[in-house]
Amino acid sequence: MKEQDNIKEWMDLPATERTNYLSFHKTAYEEDLRHAEKNVLEFPRWSIISGYYCMHDMTKLFLAEHFNVKLSSPDIHLKAIEALEHFIKDDALKMKLLEMLKEAKSIYFSAERLKEKLLPVMLKRGRQERGRAQYYSEDYSEMEKTSSQKAAYFIETIVKPYIHILKGLR
């Protein structure tokens, strides 16, 4: 258990909760990964978000299984990173896992923040596309493909390797 300014960062997983907690996070990370893979082409932003949550839920499962740690809000995402730093002792492995988790978090929050700037851009782009469609027809799938490629890259190079490493430690 870690304390900072008298605030518990994480707690021991109660024995009465252990089975349900482990089952929930196992199901959650598996569903998140399936959702991320399934939505790469149609909803790449959600694919990235689900990929990050797959990593986050797998981290909570790993910490609970091996160190009997339960994480909860507030700041659960930061707590997961801090708990991983605290409990993983092999420096090379720790650095690789933390780097992957931080990159995943960064990509997730970048994708989430894009929505604030995206609506005006989409409206402007929609107007342009309407004009083009009205007078000339072209394939505009390349823009969608780029986003899908980013989501696929994220899942294949960050999410899946991270899950593979944690599964190997289980």
Order of helices and strands: EEEHHEHHH
Counting structural domains, the number is: 1
CATH topology: Four Helix Bundle (Hemerythrin (Met), subunit A)
Question: Regarding CATH, which class?
Answer: Mainly Alpha
Count of β-strands: 4
Class from helix and strand fractions: mainly alpha
The mean pLDDT is 74
CATH homologous superfamily (4th level) name = Nucleotidyltransferases  domain 2
Helicity level, as a percent range? over 70%
What percent of residues are in strands?
A: under 5%
Give the end-to-end Cα distance, rounded to a whole number of Å. Answer: 21 Å
Question: Can you tell me the CATH architecture?
Answer: Up-down Bundle
User: Which radius of gyration do the C-alpha atoms yield?
Assistant: 19 Å
Which segments are poorly predicted (pLDDT under 50) over 5 or more consecutive residues? 1-7, 115-138
Question: What is the helix tally?
Answer: 5
The biggest beta sheet, please? 2 strands, antiparallel
Shape: globular
Oligomer: single chain
Architecture overview:
The protein has 170 residues and is mainly alpha-helical. It has one domain: Nucleotidyltransferases  domain 2 (Four Helix Bundle (Hemerythrin (Met), subunit A), Up-down Bundle), CATH 1.20.120.330. The chain contains 5 helices and 4 strands; from the N terminus they run E-E-E-H-H-E-H-H-H. The chain has helices at residues 15-38, 44-67, 76-87, 91-135, 141-169, and strands spanning 3-4, 7-8, 11-12, 69-70. The strands form 2 sheets. Strands 1-2 form a two-stranded antiparallel ribbon. A hairpin with a 2-residue loop joins strand 1 and strand 2 (7-8). Residues 1-7 and 115-138 have low confidence and may be disordered.
